[in-house]
Amino acid sequence: MIREKPYGKRPMIASCIVLVLLMFLPTSVMAKDKTGPSFYQVLCDLYRATGIAPPISCDTYPQPPAKLVFVSSTSSNGNLGGLSGADSKCQALADAAGLSGEFKAWLSDSSFETKDRLTHSTGPYVKINPDFVETDPFPPRPDEFIYVAASWRDLTDGTLLSPIDSDERGVERHGHVWAATNPDGSGYNNHTCSDWTYGEPGWYGSAGDSSYSDGHWTLADYEVFDCPASAHLYCIEQ
């Protein structure tokens, strides 16, 4: 759970974390052109990701709105009704849970890659903290979320800050997730259950595993599964 911490509390820990992270910036973030984030914007984002208040004022470097991600509470065989059907499933689950915003599935087919279908947010991607549902009413407050990634760039760098393993109501769910997508958001081979319209034997689809935060979250060890198998969807707010 991410909560604001009082200024002055654990400053040495925060500074050490940020200094270590900044060691990698010269060849990545700080090397971006003028359209990229400023040094101070990056610094503020890093402190926000730790959940510790920064020693500088970040009021002039506001963080873009967070985007909610969840693994679907329902599962289906490979016949999802195509990409549009998968997107509709995500939206229906979000609407039923009282979540606002537009949601699409993290899913590629033979014609469209995930990275070209979804919005690339510069703000963080978060999931509902599974621990909160036992004590707090729904929908959750802003402080009842856990960081999954600091931005789209972070979401697609091969490692998540936390697995996408809570559903649209904050219930923890582990299992296979239809994706056909590499960690960088590009499409993975042509194992898409005939572009997600077929759920019978003889065809295959690739999937990830919601238990993982490394590349296996979107591309599991056993890369392809029979289309009659049942798997979830990752749903990403746009």
Task: Describe the protein.
By secondary structure, the protein is α+β, with helices and mostly antiparallel strands. It folds into two domains: 1-62, no CATH class; 67-237, Mannose-Binding Protein A, Chain A. Helix content is 21%, strand content 14%. The strands form two sheets. The protein has a five-stranded mixed β-sheet with strand order 2-8-1-3-4. Helix 1 packs across helix 2. Mean pLDDT is 81; it is low at 1-15 and 17-37.
Count of domains? 2
CATH topology of the largest domain: Mannose-Binding Protein A, Chain A
Walk across the major sheet and give the strand order: 2-8-1-3-4
Superfamily at the CATH H level of the largest domain?
A: Mannose-Binding Protein A, subunit A
Mean pLDDT: 81
- The secondary-structure class comes to alpha+beta
Name of the top-level CATH class of the largest domain: Alpha Beta
Assembly category: single chain
Radius of gyration: 19 Å
Low-confidence stretches: 1-15, 17-37
CATH architecture of the largest domain: Roll
Describe the structure concisely for a colleague.
This protein has 238 residues and is of the alpha+beta class. It has helices at 11-22, 39-50, 82-96, 114-117, 152-155, 193-196; strands spanning 67-71, 103-105, 125-128, 145-149, 176-178, 204-209, 224-226, 234-237.
Topology:
Elements: H1 11-22, H2 39-50, E1 67-71, H3 82-96, E2 103-105, H4 114-117, E3 125-128, E4 145-149, H5 152-155, E5 176-178, H6 193-196, E6 204-209, E7 224-226, E8 234-237
Parallel strand pairs: 1-3
Antiparallel strand pairs: 1-8, 2-8, 3-4, 5-6, 6-7
Helix pairs in contact: 1-2
